[in-house]
Every structure is written in C-alpha cells, then in structure tokens.
Amino acid sequence: MIFLILIIFALPGILLGKYIFKRYFNPLTVYTAIWYGMINLYYLKLIRYDDLRMETWLFIAGAYLSMLLGSVTYFMSKNFLDAKLNIKTHKLEKVQIFSDDGIVIKYAIIVFSIIGFISAFQHWFVLINKYGSLLGVLLKAPEIYRLRVEGKIKGVIPYIHTFSYVAVFLSAIYTAYKNKFTFLTFLPLIAVFIKELANVGRSNILLAVILFISTYFVFKSFYAYHFGKQEKKVFRNVVALLLILGIFIASSAFMRAFRGTVETFSGTSRALSSYKENLLISPSIYLYLSAHLGVFNKYLELEAEQSAFAQYTFQPVYNLLTKLGMINKKMRFYHKGYYIPVWTNSGTYLREMHADFGIFGILLMPYLLGLLATKFWISFFEKGSLVSLIVLIQIFTILIFSFFLTVTRFGVWYIYFILLLLIVPFLEKLSVFNERNKWFRMKLI
User: Fold this and answer.
1) Above pLDDT 70, what percent of the chain?
2) d(CA 168, CA 186)
3) Within 13 A of 57's CA, how many CA atoms are on the CB side?
4) Most confident of 11-15, 29-33, 250-254, 262-266
5) What is the domain range of residue 193?
6) 143 or 220, which is more confident
C-alpha cells in the first residue's frame, strides 16, 4: 500500500518538473526521485526499522510541497511578467567560454587537476612519513579515519584540493560541449579519488561525482536547446557515466574494506545478511541509503537535542568564528546517534533544518530551494550565464545530498563555490581574448 501511495505523490512532481523545466533531468524530478527511492528502501524493511510517525510524514510531505510551491511561484511570476512586458526569449549565438573552441578550458582543467594531485600526494606523504610505508597507511585506515574525524592529522595543507572540484566542473561543461568523453573528463575525478583515499572518506568523492553529473546533464541540455541536437553517442556516454559512477563505487568498496566497516547489524533480515560480502549490496550500503529517515523519526520523537541558530546550515561559518576567537564553543560535525534498531546518526537535511530553524525551516528552506533552482535554471537557459549555472549546480548538490545531510556543512562546498565564481568569469574573458589574439593554440587533447 505504501508503495502505491508514494507513486501517487511522486508522479505529479515528476510531471510538474518536466512541464516547468522542459527536461526530465531537473531539480524537481531529481529531488522527487531521491526521496521516493529512499522511502521505498526504508519500507523494504531489510533492516527492521520502525514505521514513521505521522509527524515525520507531515514534515516530509510539507517540505516536498514547499519545494514544488517555490518552483511554481517563480515560474508563474516569470511568465506573467514576461507576458505583460512582452519579453521574448532568443536563442544564443555562442557561449563565451568556448569562443576559442575550449582551448583555454583544456589548459585550466589540466592546471587545476595538477594542483589537486599535488595536494593529494602531499597528504599521502604526511601519512607515509607517520606510518612508515604505503602498506602501513592502508593497514592503519581505521585509525586514520578516527584521527580525521577528531581533527588530529597534522601537517596536511588544507583546502588546496578544492581546485580539483573547479576542474571537475570545467571538465563537465567541456565534455558536454565536445559531446565526447576524453582523458580530461576523468583527470580531476582521479585527483579527488586519490586525495580522499588518503582521507579515508567517501562523502567528498560523492560530492565530486554529483558535481560532474549535474553539470554535464544541465549544460548538455542547454547546448542542445540553443545550438541544436548534437550527434548522439548514447552507448559511449552511458559507458563513460557508468565508469564515473564506478569510481565512486570502487572507492566506497575500498574504503569499506580498509576501514573495517561492520556488516552485521541487529534487526537485519536474513536476505540482507546473506549479502554482507557483496560489493554492491551489503547491510552497510543499505543502511547508508535508507536509515536516515529512521534517525529523523527518532529525533522528532525524543526531542532530546538543542542547537544554536543555523549551526548546521552554516557550520563552516561557526568554525571560522571559533578559530578567530569570536565564539568559544566549537560545533561538532557529527550528530548524536539513535538506535533504530542500529546505532546511526545521519537524519536527512530535514533534521538539520528543524534543529536550526524549527518548523519554519522545514517549510521555508525547501521553498527557497525550489524558487532559486527555478530562477537560476531559467536565467542560465535564457542568457547562458555561467554564474547562474554555478549557483544552480550548487543547489543540485544540496537537493541530491538532502537524503543524507545538508551539504553546506562541508567547508569544501563553500570554497570551491567561491573559486568557481572568481575563476569562471576570468576564463570567459580569457577565451574571448584568446580567440582574438591566438595566444593559446596547441590542442593538447
């Protein structure tokens, strides 16, 4: 019964997204698919989770409807004003950043990827120096993970690796523009993988994969809309995208093996327990994809937490204020855990919106996400503004991570966002300059 009800709620969101954005890959459809999938997984009960309370369902539904309403609000307002002022959309003649056919972007991808590799290798050098050898580092992965969580790994240069994410964004629009996958497509993703392997972390690899896929599909749709359909290479593109997802899956499996992830949980069904050695389907992976609703449910039931205003939404800001001595209390990154019947602590972005802003946050934040996603989507498709694309893709990352947590808690999210806003307009001007003066001519790849 629950699965039928979910379909009834999901279909209007998918169809509304297609109507507003004219593409199936859009913010509303992505958000609908993420939450539809998670709720279905939760109610498969491969781990014997508690049923969600009515309050929890009301918050989930309220947030979802608020997001739809935000999107509809901007869409209808924009159409009304355009009709009243007789404003018509025109097809673009070119995209400035590709004025020189992408030569400047190729150099930029290589340069920023190299910076990412330098950061990764420096991190590995620190660990090898501490543990004596590469094998010693791999064997001490659980300890390294614990030290990272506690912020006790010293000697690593912070945040330089965020240039890799700039390269990921550029490689996505370059790949969509060229309509083919090349070595440049994978270069920055490999840099992120090597860095996070040393960090014994998966979330930042997932962030890079989401950044690439979102940017690729949105820019590809934009380019097809303005400049006609490109030659279809469906099989090659599907294979390449599967390879990108394979990077995340392989890295997750590697981390799981060396971190010594527990695969035996109380309340696990026999069917799921039989897959505990499986690469793609295991108790820990199922837990990772489904448990967050149970934590949110238990958080609402017990009402046992207190938090400062917006401490999760803007956690990096709080951390910066702590370092500057402006506040005394350092905010913990990891939440309190709950037994659901497995001890886990991630409770979707709704838990954090509620902790930061109360019921007001549950309704207002999704509304703003829907409104802003629609605004920047339309702005990008009408004007080709890459600044609008950058903001739009950041909203996509929030929506996709919403099943897990609020991605704005990651310091790297802010830093590469700022870097993109500074670097991309400069690259646009440099591309136009290069087309006129032919300074950079060599086609490297």
Assistant:
1) 81
2) 8
3) 8
4) 29-33
5) 92-261+405-445
6) 220
Per residue in 268-311, pLDDT (tens digit) is 666 565 555 555 566 777 788 888 999 999 999 887 777 777 78
**H helix or E strand, kind and range, residue 6:** helix 2-21
What type of residue sits at position 316?
P
How many helices (DSSP H) and strands (DSSP E) are in the chain? 18, 2
Measured distance CA(146)–CA(155) in Å, rounded: 16
- Residues in the chain, total: 445
**pLDDT of 221 higher than 70:** yes
361-384 burial string, b = 16+ CB within 10 Å, else e? bbbbbbbebbbbbbbbbbbbbbeb
Tokens of 6: 């979910």
Q: How far apart are CA 354 and CA 368, in angstroms?
A: 15
pLDDT surpasses 70 at 201: yes
- Both tokens of 124, joined, read 């590995």
Inter-axis angle of helices 203-227 and 234-259, nearest 10: 170
Distance CA 429, CA 421 (A): 13
Tell me 344's DSSP state.
E
User: 3 is written with which tokens?
Assistant: 């699965």
Tell me 58's DSSP state.
H
Residue 241: which of 4, 19, 401, 25 has the closest Cα? 25
With contact defined as beta carbons under 8 Å apart, do 246 and 193 qualify? no
Token code pair at residue 104:
């400047």
pLDDT at 7: 82
Distance, in Å, from the CA atom of 262 to the CA atom of 257, rounded to the nearest integer, reads 10
Mean pLDDT of 133-153: 75
333-377 pLDDT, tens digit each: 677 788 888 888 888 999 999 988 889 999 999 999 999 999 999
Q: Is residue 301 part of a domain?
A: no
Whether 406 contacts 352, CB under 8 Å: yes
Residues facing 268 on adjacent strands:
47
Asked whether residue 364 is domain-assigned, the answer is no
Judge whether 108 lies within some domain: yes
Q: How many domains does the chain have?
A: 1
Strand partners, 338: 344
Amino acid at 246: G
DSSP-derived secondary structure letter, 160: G
326 against 26, higher pLDDT: 26
Is 321 within the bounds of a domain? Answer: no
Residue 149 pLDDT greater than 70, yes or no: no
Q: Alpha helix (H) ranges present in 132-233?
A: 134-139, 141-150, 163-178, 183-199, 203-227
CA distances from 422 to 3, 189, 335, 376, 426 (A): 46, 21, 33, 18, 7
